[in-house]
């Protein structure tokens, strides 16, 4: 069968191929061509033989079909407890079947696997906490995504996102020049209110190398300014790199493991070039996972660690509050009821649950937990690429119901959500279900309540 012009097995590696995909409005041609995409069964069998190791094969074989994983999955709960949404069923009917057939599958099966892998699992890893055998369907779905990507069966938006990383080293078309100009622009914008504020670029031997999400320079440059203001107030010696500043990985969502390796190596190269004492990453869960947890293995680092110690933004905030670098004005603490959204990637998979609660103790007078909470909390409903795939928007919107119910049960008027995917999912709950929800990153909340040292105020204020 013909491969077509858009839906190819090869990853996007040129601006021309990326532009062709972008010109295909909503991926209509892309998905139509996918129906005729041939399967390289020999290559798939060879990949399975090489990469499907004993852990995955053992997990697939020892599953007791007990159903203990069912209630752990927000998509199972949101879809009326449909048996086909049980995590064990989803993975056994896709990856399990592919392994049992040793890659001897057809186009319809691969398209079915694609739909399940990206619309019925966010790889949140919650199911692994409740399986009596420790089987983690999230890990296996991530592996399945890689197999599907290698054969060209990947959602249109994530094919584009993976290509963006390979071409721009960012999930969006932000060039090095765009990035540096945005830093200069944000620095200039703050001079009247924050005299002496700098956004240093490529400063060597700084205490902090700050890396972030490409959506910030592309759509929310004020987030960069807010980070700079808080570093300024805290008296931090910090910098951003001109290259290697983007720490997210849509390639990870797409299953493009080579794209993941290329992306994280740009960040690690910046660390090695600028020699910071540590890296602090922005308020993004999957960026933390990609750079700090998964990244060392993609990059082939034998110690399993990035080149320098790496911290999520909540860790830096907690440290700054604990040490007095940032001080909260008691009169400006959050007075109304507040809850906190636990990001799967830095709470459940990164272990930062208590750090998050420490921050809430400083900034909120009436903090209330969701139920369940901490590492047991449910996915926001938009992680793992779910937020961004138009083909699966209806399924994503149904999945939002579980988190919406959690939020409503707290009675909170504000959701603190230090993660881009969570932030987007909560925003969309308001638009889809027409319920009033107020949500925020940490940065703007902190700027409104921190005590500003007199020497940092404009002359007329001081």
Question: Could you explain how this protein is built, in words?
Answer:
This protein is of the alpha/beta class and 462 residues long. Helices cover 50% and strands 6% of the residues. It has 21 helices and 8 strands. It has a 4-stranded parallel β-sheet. Strands 6-5-7-8 form a 4-stranded parallel β-sheet, with helices on both faces. α15 (285-298) links the parallel β3 and β4. The radius of gyration is 22 Å and the shape is globular. The termini are far apart. The mean pLDDT is 96.
Characterize the biggest β-sheet: 4 strands, parallel
**Series of secondary-structure elements, N-terminal to C-terminal:** HHHHHHHHHHEHHEHHEHEHEHHEHEHEH
Q: Please report which band the strand proportion falls in: under 5%, 5-15%, 15-25%, 25-35%, 35-45% or over 45%.
A: 5-15%
Task: Report the radius of gyration as a whole number of Å.
Answer: 22 Å
- What is the typical, i.e. mean, pLDDT? 96
Distance between the termini: 73 Å
What class, by secondary structure content?
alpha/beta
Number of strands: 8
Number of helices, where a helix is a run of at least 4 consecutive DSSP H or I residues: 21
| Low-pLDDT segments, ≥5 res | none
The side-by-side strand order for the widest beta sheet comes to 2-1-3-4
Oligomer: single chain
Q: Helix fraction?
A: 40-55%
Judging from the principal axes of the Cα atoms, what is the shape? globular
């Amino acid at each position: 069968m013909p491969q077509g012009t858009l839906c190819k097995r090869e990853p996007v590696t040129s601006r021309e191929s990326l532009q062709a995909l972008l010109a295909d409005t909503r991926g209509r041609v892309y998905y139509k061509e996918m129906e005729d995409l041939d399967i390289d069964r020999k290559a798939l069998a060879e990949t399975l033989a090489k990469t499907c190791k004993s852990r995955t094969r053992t997990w697939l074989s020892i599953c007791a079909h007990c159903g203990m994983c069912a209630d752990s999955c927000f998509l199972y709960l949101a879809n009326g407890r449909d048996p086909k949404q049980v995590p064990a069923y989803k993975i056994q009917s896709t990856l399990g079947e592919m392994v049992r057939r040793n890659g001897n599958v057809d186009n319809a099966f691969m398209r079915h696997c694609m739909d399940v892998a990206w619309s019925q699992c966010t790889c949140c890893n919650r199911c692994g906490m409740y399986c009596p055998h420790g089987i983690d369907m999230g890990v296996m779905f991530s592996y399945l995504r890689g197999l599907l990507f290698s054969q060209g069966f990947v959602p249109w938006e994530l094919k584009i996102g993976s290509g963006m990383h390979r071409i721009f080293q960012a999930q969006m078309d932000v060039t090095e020049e765009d990035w540096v100009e945005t830093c200069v622009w944000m620095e200039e914008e703050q001079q009247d209110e924050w005299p002496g504020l700098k956004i240093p670029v490529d400063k060597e031997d700084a205490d902090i190398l700050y890396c972030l999400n490409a959506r910030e320079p592309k759509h929310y440059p004020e987030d960069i300014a807010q980070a700079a203001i808080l570093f300024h107030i805290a008296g931090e010696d910090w910098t951003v790199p001109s290259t290697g500043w983007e720490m997210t990985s849509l390639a990870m969502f797409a299953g493009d493991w080579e794209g993941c390796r290329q992306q994280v190596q740009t960040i690690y190269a910046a660390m090695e070039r600028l020699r910071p004492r540590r890296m602090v990453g922005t308020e993004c869960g999957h960026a933390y996972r990609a750079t700090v947890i998964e990244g060392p293995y993609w990059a082939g680092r034998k110690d399993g660690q990035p080149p320098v110690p790496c911290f999520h933004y909540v860790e830096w905030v907690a440290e700054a509050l604990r040490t007095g670098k940032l001080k909260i004005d008691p009169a400006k603490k959050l007075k109304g009821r507040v809850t906190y959204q636990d990001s799967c990637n830095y709470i459940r998979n990164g272990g930062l649950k208590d750090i998050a609660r420490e921050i809430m103790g400083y900034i909120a007078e009436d903090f209330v937990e969701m139920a369940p909470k901490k590492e047991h909390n449910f996915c926001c409903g938009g992680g793992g690429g779910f937020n961004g795939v138009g083909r699966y928007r209806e399924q994503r919107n149904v999945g939002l119901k579980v988190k919406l119910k959690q939020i409503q049960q707290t009675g909170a008027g504000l959701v603190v959500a230090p993660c881009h995917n969570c932030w987007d999912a909560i925003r969309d709950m308001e638009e889809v279900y027409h319920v009033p929800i107020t949500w925020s990153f940490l940065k703007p909340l902190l700027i409104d309540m921190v005590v500003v040292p007199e020497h940092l105020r404009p002359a007329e204020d001081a």
